[in-house]
């Protein structure tokens, strides 16, 4: 029996395990810096930075959909699905579809104009899953980021007079 429900603070240790499993899958095993305390503080503090649904089977969290609001200057309120993770042992059993459905239903009730997310270009099973469920995979956009060191370098270039 699979249950999809809103995540709680008590789920964060299992959520972190899923995040670490995703990092290994995405060939970035050492990239995870977030801690259980970060997840608890950021998701369940006075101004939560994210909302999450978990998929639970036989008392274990086997999937996660973590998302947050964004604002499109063209469309208005949107949701960014940061990660949709299903543990390797639970893949192919409808867990991902159940989580995606819950996020879409949530967005629908909140009247968002768009739900968006990123997928690695080599993750063919995920791309096929998303497209088979009606999502458009936009291949003409590049993701742009400044990591923590990039932010620090930018600030350093500003100098004291501009900060």
From TrEMBL:
Coiled coil regions, renumbered to chain: none
Keywords: Acyltransferase, Transferase
N-acetyltransferase domain span: 2-149
Protein name: N-acetyltransferase
The keyword Transferase is annotated on this UniProt entry: yes
Transmembrane segments: none
Pfam families per the UniProt record, alphabetical: Acetyltransf_1
């Amino acid at each position: 029996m699979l249950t999809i429900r809103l995540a709680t603070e008590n789920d964060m240790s299992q959520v972190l395990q899923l995040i670490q499993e995703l990092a290994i899958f995405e060939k970035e095993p050492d990239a995870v810096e977030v801690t259980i305390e970060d997840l608890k503080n950021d998701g369940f503090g006075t101004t939560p930075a994210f909302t999450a649904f978990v998929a639970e089977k036989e008392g274990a969290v086997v999937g996660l959909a973590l998302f947050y609001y964004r604002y499109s200057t063209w469309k208005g309120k949107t949701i960014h699905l940061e990660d949709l993770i299903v543990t390797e042992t639970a893949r192919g059993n409808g867990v991902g579809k159940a989580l995606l459905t819950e996020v879409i239903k949530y967005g629908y009730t909140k009247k968002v104009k768009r739900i968006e997310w990123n997928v690695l270009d080599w993750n063919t099973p995920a791309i096929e899953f998303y497209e088979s469920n009606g999502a458009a995979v936009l291949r003409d956009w590049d993701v742009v980021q400044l990591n923590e060191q990039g932010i620090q370098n930018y600030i350093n270039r500003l100098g004291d007079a501009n900060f």
